[in-house]
Amino acid sequence: MVQAKFWVMTKHFDGFPKNSDFELKVEELPEPKDGEVLLEAVFLSVDPYMRVIQSKNPAFPVGSHVVSNSGWRTHTLSDGNGLTPILPEWPKDVSLSLALGAIGMPGLTAVYGIEDVLGLKEGETLLVNAAAGAVGSVVGQIAKIKGCKVVGSTGSDAKVVFLKELGFDEAFNYKTVGSLEEALRKASPEGYDCLFENVGGSFATVALEQMKNCGRIAVCGSISTYNDSTPQTGPYPYFTMIIKELKMEGFMQSSRQDKHPETLKRLLAWVKEGKLQCREHVTKGFENMPAAFMGMMQGENIGKAVVAV
Protein backbone atom coordinates (compact mmCIF):
# COMPACT_ATOMS: atom_id res chain seq x y z
CA MET A 1 0.00 0.00 0.00
CA VAL A 2 1.23 3.49 -0.86
CA GLN A 3 0.25 6.62 1.05
CA ALA A 4 -0.68 9.40 -1.36
CA LYS A 5 -0.75 13.05 -0.35
CA PHE A 6 -2.97 15.39 -2.29
CA TRP A 7 -4.18 18.98 -2.17
CA VAL A 8 -7.84 19.90 -2.47
CA MET A 9 -9.49 23.27 -2.94
CA THR A 10 -11.79 23.77 0.05
CA LYS A 11 -13.77 26.60 -1.55
CA HIS A 12 -13.80 28.69 -4.69
CA PHE A 13 -11.47 31.66 -4.58
CA ASP A 14 -12.94 34.95 -3.42
CA GLY A 15 -10.55 37.39 -5.07
CA PHE A 16 -6.91 36.34 -4.76
CA PRO A 17 -6.30 32.75 -3.48
CA LYS A 18 -5.46 32.29 0.22
CA ASN A 19 -3.80 29.47 2.17
CA SER A 20 -7.14 28.72 3.80
CA ASP A 21 -8.55 27.86 0.34
CA PHE A 22 -6.41 24.70 0.25
CA GLU A 23 -6.24 21.56 2.41
CA LEU A 24 -3.62 18.79 2.37
CA LYS A 25 -5.06 15.27 2.66
CA VAL A 26 -3.68 11.71 2.75
CA GLU A 27 -5.12 8.45 1.42
CA GLU A 28 -3.89 4.88 0.98
CA LEU A 29 -3.86 3.51 -2.56
CA PRO A 30 -4.37 -0.20 -3.33
CA GLU A 31 -1.98 -2.28 -5.40
CA PRO A 32 -2.33 -1.74 -9.18
CA LYS A 33 -4.72 -4.11 -10.94
CA ASP A 34 -4.06 -5.63 -14.35
CA GLY A 35 -3.72 -2.79 -16.88
CA GLU A 36 -3.02 -0.17 -14.20
CA VAL A 37 0.12 1.76 -13.28
CA LEU A 38 1.12 3.58 -10.11
CA LEU A 39 2.47 7.05 -10.77
CA GLU A 40 4.83 9.01 -8.52
CA ALA A 41 5.13 12.76 -9.00
CA VAL A 42 8.60 14.11 -9.67
CA PHE A 43 7.68 17.65 -10.80
CA LEU A 44 4.26 19.27 -10.50
CA SER A 45 2.54 22.15 -12.22
CA VAL A 46 -0.94 22.60 -13.53
CA ASP A 47 0.09 19.62 -15.68
CA PRO A 48 1.67 17.00 -13.42
CA TYR A 49 4.79 15.23 -14.70
CA MET A 50 5.24 11.76 -13.27
CA ARG A 51 7.16 8.47 -13.38
CA VAL A 52 5.77 4.93 -13.21
CA ILE A 53 6.89 3.10 -10.05
CA GLN A 54 4.62 0.03 -10.34
CA SER A 55 3.01 -1.30 -13.48
CA LYS A 56 0.69 -4.00 -14.70
CA ASN A 57 0.32 -2.23 -18.03
CA PRO A 58 2.85 -3.28 -20.70
CA ALA A 59 2.56 0.11 -22.43
CA PHE A 60 4.18 1.79 -19.41
CA PRO A 61 7.08 -0.20 -17.94
CA VAL A 62 8.32 0.65 -14.44
CA GLY A 63 10.60 3.68 -14.65
CA SER A 64 8.73 5.25 -17.57
CA HIS A 65 8.29 9.04 -17.43
CA VAL A 66 4.95 10.50 -18.45
CA VAL A 67 2.91 13.70 -18.34
CA SER A 68 -0.55 13.40 -16.80
CA ASN A 69 -3.42 15.60 -15.65
CA SER A 70 -3.81 13.99 -12.23
CA GLY A 71 -4.05 17.00 -9.94
CA TRP A 72 -1.76 18.01 -7.09
CA ARG A 73 -0.88 14.50 -5.88
CA THR A 74 2.26 12.63 -4.87
CA HIS A 75 0.92 9.29 -6.17
CA THR A 76 -1.87 8.31 -8.56
CA LEU A 77 -3.33 5.04 -9.84
CA SER A 78 -4.02 5.18 -13.57
CA ASP A 79 -5.40 2.84 -16.20
CA GLY A 80 -3.02 4.43 -18.72
CA ASN A 81 -5.56 6.68 -20.39
CA GLY A 82 -4.40 10.27 -20.71
CA LEU A 83 -0.74 9.46 -20.03
CA THR A 84 1.70 11.06 -22.47
CA PRO A 85 5.17 9.44 -22.55
CA ILE A 86 8.19 11.71 -22.60
CA LEU A 87 9.85 11.84 -26.05
CA PRO A 88 12.06 8.73 -26.38
CA GLU A 89 14.93 10.85 -27.73
CA TRP A 90 14.97 13.13 -24.65
CA PRO A 91 18.65 13.90 -23.88
CA LYS A 92 19.99 12.99 -20.44
CA ASP A 93 21.47 16.48 -20.03
CA VAL A 94 18.07 18.20 -20.47
CA SER A 95 15.97 18.42 -17.30
CA LEU A 96 12.78 16.40 -17.49
CA SER A 97 11.00 19.30 -15.79
CA LEU A 98 11.03 21.06 -19.17
CA ALA A 99 8.25 18.65 -20.16
CA LEU A 100 6.09 21.03 -18.11
CA GLY A 101 7.54 24.11 -19.75
CA ALA A 102 9.27 24.94 -23.01
CA ILE A 103 9.02 21.34 -24.27
CA GLY A 104 5.50 20.91 -22.94
CA MET A 105 2.19 22.74 -22.77
CA PRO A 106 3.62 26.30 -22.66
CA GLY A 107 5.89 25.59 -25.63
CA LEU A 108 3.04 24.03 -27.61
CA THR A 109 0.89 27.06 -26.83
CA ALA A 110 3.60 29.40 -28.07
CA VAL A 111 4.08 27.54 -31.36
CA TYR A 112 0.38 27.23 -32.19
CA GLY A 113 -0.33 30.84 -31.29
CA ILE A 114 2.50 32.10 -33.48
CA GLU A 115 2.04 29.76 -36.43
CA ASP A 116 -1.61 28.70 -36.54
CA VAL A 117 -3.33 31.80 -35.15
CA LEU A 118 -1.06 34.73 -35.97
CA GLY A 119 0.68 33.37 -39.04
CA LEU A 120 3.71 35.44 -38.03
CA LYS A 121 5.96 36.33 -40.97
CA GLU A 122 9.63 37.24 -41.17
CA GLY A 123 10.21 40.97 -40.68
CA GLU A 124 6.98 41.59 -38.75
CA THR A 125 6.78 43.14 -35.28
CA LEU A 126 5.31 41.12 -32.42
CA LEU A 127 4.18 42.41 -29.02
CA VAL A 128 3.86 39.90 -26.18
CA ASN A 129 2.78 40.68 -22.61
CA ALA A 130 3.54 38.60 -19.51
CA ALA A 131 6.65 38.12 -21.61
CA ALA A 132 8.88 36.60 -18.91
CA GLY A 133 6.38 33.87 -18.06
CA ALA A 134 6.30 30.25 -19.18
CA VAL A 135 4.51 30.99 -22.46
CA GLY A 136 5.63 34.55 -23.17
CA SER A 137 9.34 33.82 -22.89
CA VAL A 138 9.03 31.02 -25.46
CA VAL A 139 6.83 33.14 -27.73
CA GLY A 140 9.48 35.85 -27.96
CA GLN A 141 12.30 33.43 -28.71
CA ILE A 142 10.37 31.61 -31.43
CA ALA A 143 9.50 34.96 -33.01
CA LYS A 144 13.23 35.81 -33.09
CA ILE A 145 13.97 32.41 -34.68
CA LYS A 146 11.51 33.42 -37.39
CA GLY A 147 13.29 36.72 -38.01
CA CYS A 148 10.86 39.12 -36.34
CA LYS A 149 11.16 42.19 -34.14
CA VAL A 150 9.93 41.36 -30.62
CA VAL A 151 8.72 43.72 -27.91
CA GLY A 152 7.98 42.36 -24.45
CA SER A 153 6.05 43.81 -21.53
CA THR A 154 6.78 42.42 -18.07
CA GLY A 155 6.41 43.27 -14.40
CA SER A 156 9.89 43.85 -12.94
CA ASP A 157 13.28 45.27 -13.87
CA ALA A 158 14.87 41.83 -13.32
CA LYS A 159 12.48 40.38 -15.87
CA VAL A 160 13.38 43.12 -18.34
CA VAL A 161 17.02 42.09 -18.04
CA PHE A 162 16.00 38.46 -18.58
CA LEU A 163 14.08 39.31 -21.76
CA LYS A 164 17.05 41.22 -23.18
CA GLU A 165 19.22 38.17 -22.46
CA LEU A 166 16.76 36.08 -24.48
CA GLY A 167 17.18 38.40 -27.46
CA PHE A 168 14.05 40.56 -27.23
CA ASP A 169 14.59 43.74 -29.24
CA GLU A 170 12.73 45.89 -26.70
CA ALA A 171 11.40 45.20 -23.21
CA PHE A 172 9.87 47.38 -20.50
CA ASN A 173 8.47 47.15 -16.98
CA TYR A 174 4.81 48.11 -17.31
CA LYS A 175 4.62 48.85 -13.56
CA THR A 176 7.17 51.67 -13.71
CA VAL A 177 6.55 53.32 -17.09
CA GLY A 178 4.74 56.62 -16.82
CA SER A 179 2.42 55.75 -19.67
CA LEU A 180 1.79 52.35 -21.23
CA GLU A 181 0.75 54.04 -24.46
CA GLU A 182 4.02 55.97 -24.66
CA ALA A 183 6.09 52.89 -23.76
CA LEU A 184 4.49 50.89 -26.56
CA ARG A 185 4.95 53.71 -29.06
CA LYS A 186 8.60 54.20 -28.07
CA ALA A 187 9.34 50.48 -28.40
CA SER A 188 7.82 50.33 -31.90
CA PRO A 189 6.88 53.72 -33.39
CA GLU A 190 5.60 52.02 -36.55
CA GLY A 191 3.09 49.93 -34.57
CA TYR A 192 2.58 46.17 -34.23
CA ASP A 193 1.65 43.51 -36.75
CA CYS A 194 0.82 40.92 -34.11
CA LEU A 195 -0.09 40.78 -30.42
CA PHE A 196 0.27 37.60 -28.35
CA GLU A 197 -2.19 38.39 -25.56
CA ASN A 198 -1.68 36.82 -22.13
CA VAL A 199 -2.95 39.63 -19.89
CA GLY A 200 -6.21 41.15 -21.13
CA GLY A 201 -7.92 44.00 -19.30
CA SER A 202 -6.72 47.56 -19.79
CA PHE A 203 -3.44 46.47 -21.41
CA ALA A 204 -5.32 45.04 -24.38
CA THR A 205 -7.37 48.21 -24.76
CA VAL A 206 -4.22 50.35 -25.04
CA ALA A 207 -2.35 47.88 -27.25
CA LEU A 208 -5.13 47.54 -29.82
CA GLU A 209 -4.86 51.24 -30.59
CA GLN A 210 -1.27 50.69 -31.73
CA MET A 211 -1.89 47.70 -33.95
CA LYS A 212 -1.17 48.15 -37.65
CA ASN A 213 -4.01 47.86 -40.12
CA CYS A 214 -4.99 44.19 -40.61
CA GLY A 215 -3.09 43.26 -37.45
CA ARG A 216 -3.65 39.90 -35.76
CA ILE A 217 -4.19 39.14 -32.08
CA ALA A 218 -3.83 35.67 -30.53
CA VAL A 219 -5.70 35.53 -27.21
CA CYS A 220 -3.98 32.99 -24.97
CA GLY A 221 -4.76 34.29 -21.48
CA SER A 222 -6.28 37.06 -19.40
CA ILE A 223 -4.34 36.89 -16.15
CA SER A 224 -5.22 40.47 -15.17
CA THR A 225 -8.85 39.39 -14.71
CA TYR A 226 -8.58 35.92 -13.16
CA ASN A 227 -8.84 37.07 -9.53
CA ASP A 228 -11.43 39.81 -9.97
CA SER A 229 -14.31 39.61 -7.51
CA THR A 230 -16.28 41.94 -9.78
CA PRO A 231 -15.90 41.47 -13.56
CA GLN A 232 -14.12 44.31 -15.35
CA THR A 233 -16.21 46.32 -17.78
CA GLY A 234 -15.25 48.31 -20.89
CA PRO A 235 -14.02 50.22 -22.68
CA TYR A 236 -15.05 48.14 -25.66
CA PRO A 237 -12.57 48.28 -28.58
CA TYR A 238 -14.86 47.14 -31.37
CA PHE A 239 -14.72 50.40 -33.31
CA THR A 240 -10.90 50.25 -33.29
CA MET A 241 -11.05 46.66 -34.55
CA ILE A 242 -13.42 47.67 -37.35
CA ILE A 243 -11.42 50.69 -38.53
CA LYS A 244 -8.10 48.82 -38.40
CA GLU A 245 -9.62 45.57 -39.72
CA LEU A 246 -8.06 43.61 -36.89
CA LYS A 247 -8.40 39.86 -36.44
CA MET A 248 -8.64 38.50 -32.87
CA GLU A 249 -8.80 34.78 -32.12
CA GLY A 250 -8.80 32.82 -28.89
CA PHE A 251 -7.18 29.40 -28.87
CA MET A 252 -6.04 26.45 -26.77
CA GLN A 253 -3.22 24.03 -27.45
CA SER A 254 -5.40 21.09 -26.40
CA SER A 255 -7.45 21.36 -29.60
CA ARG A 256 -4.37 20.47 -31.67
CA GLN A 257 -3.26 17.27 -29.98
CA ASP A 258 -2.65 15.52 -33.30
CA LYS A 259 0.22 17.97 -33.87
CA HIS A 260 1.81 17.59 -30.43
CA PRO A 261 4.39 14.87 -31.18
CA GLU A 262 5.96 16.68 -34.13
CA THR A 263 5.79 20.08 -32.40
CA LEU A 264 7.46 18.73 -29.25
CA LYS A 265 10.28 17.36 -31.40
CA ARG A 266 10.78 20.81 -32.94
CA LEU A 267 10.87 22.45 -29.51
CA LEU A 268 13.38 19.89 -28.23
CA ALA A 269 15.56 20.48 -31.30
CA TRP A 270 15.58 24.24 -30.67
CA VAL A 271 16.63 23.62 -27.06
CA LYS A 272 19.44 21.28 -28.14
CA GLU A 273 20.62 23.79 -30.75
CA GLY A 274 20.72 26.59 -28.17
CA LYS A 275 18.05 28.60 -29.98
CA LEU A 276 15.54 28.24 -27.17
CA GLN A 277 16.69 29.09 -23.65
CA CYS A 278 14.71 27.86 -20.67
CA ARG A 279 14.56 29.30 -17.18
CA GLU A 280 12.51 27.76 -14.40
CA HIS A 281 11.28 28.99 -11.05
CA VAL A 282 11.53 25.83 -8.93
CA THR A 283 9.86 25.48 -5.54
CA LYS A 284 10.96 22.46 -3.51
CA GLY A 285 8.51 20.38 -1.50
CA PHE A 286 5.00 19.08 -2.16
CA GLU A 287 3.76 20.91 0.93
CA ASN A 288 4.57 24.20 -0.81
CA MET A 289 2.18 23.70 -3.75
CA PRO A 290 -0.31 26.43 -2.71
CA ALA A 291 2.49 28.93 -2.04
CA ALA A 292 4.02 28.19 -5.44
CA PHE A 293 0.63 28.61 -7.12
CA MET A 294 -0.08 31.93 -5.40
CA GLY A 295 3.43 33.16 -6.15
CA MET A 296 2.90 32.39 -9.84
CA MET A 297 -0.38 34.30 -9.81
CA GLN A 298 1.46 37.29 -8.34
CA GLY A 299 4.16 37.13 -11.02
CA GLU A 300 7.02 36.02 -8.75
CA ASN A 301 8.34 33.54 -11.29
CA ILE A 302 10.70 34.10 -14.22
CA GLY A 303 10.00 31.36 -16.74
CA LYS A 304 7.99 28.26 -15.88
CA ALA A 305 6.96 27.76 -12.24
CA VAL A 306 7.32 24.12 -11.14
CA VAL A 307 7.38 22.24 -7.86
CA ALA A 308 10.03 19.60 -7.29
CA VAL A 309 8.43 16.88 -5.19
From TrEMBL:
Gene Ontology CC annotation, any one: cytoplasm
Domain Enoyl reductase (ER), first and last residues per copy: 15-307
Subcellular compartments: Cytoplasm
Keywords attached to this entry: Acetylation, Cytoplasm, Fatty acid metabolism, Hydroxylation, Lipid metabolism, NADP, Oxidoreductase, Phosphoprotein, Prostaglandin metabolism
InterPro entries according to UniProt: ADH-like_C (IPR013149), ADH_N_2 (IPR041694), ER (IPR020843), GroES-like_sf (IPR011032), MDR_fam (IPR045010), NAD(P)-bd_dom_sf (IPR036291), PTGR1 (IPR014190)
Molecular function in Gene Ontology: 15-oxoprostaglandin 13-reductase [NAD(P)+] activity; 2-alkenal reductase [NAD(P)H] activity
Keyword Lipid metabolism assigned: yes
Protein name: Prostaglandin reductase 1
One BP term from GO: prostaglandin metabolic process
Pfam families: ADH_N_2, ADH_zinc_N
Family listed: Belongs to the NADP-dependent oxidoreductase L4BD family.
Catalytic activity: (5S,12S)-dihydroxy-(6E,10E,12E,14Z)-eicosatetraenoate + NADP(+) = 12-oxo-(5S)-hydroxy-(6E,8E,10E,14Z)-eicosatetraenoate + NADPH + H(+); 20-hydroxy-leukotriene B4 + NADP(+) = 12-oxo-20-hydroxy-leukotriene B4 + NADPH + H(+); 6-trans-leukotriene B4 + NADP(+) = 12-oxo-(5S)-hydroxy-(6E,8E,10E,14Z)-eicosatetraenoate + NADPH + H(+); 13,14-dihydro-15-oxo-prostaglandin F1alpha + NADP(+) = 15-oxoprostaglandin F1alpha + NADPH + H(+)
Top-level taxon in the UniProt lineage: Eukaryota
EC numbers, comma separated: 1.3.1.48, 1.3.1.74
Enzyme type, top EC level: oxidoreductase
Species for this entry: Neolamprologus brichardi (Fairy cichlid)
Quaternary structure, from the entry: Monomer or homodimer.
Predominant cellular place of this UniProt entry's protein: cytoplasm
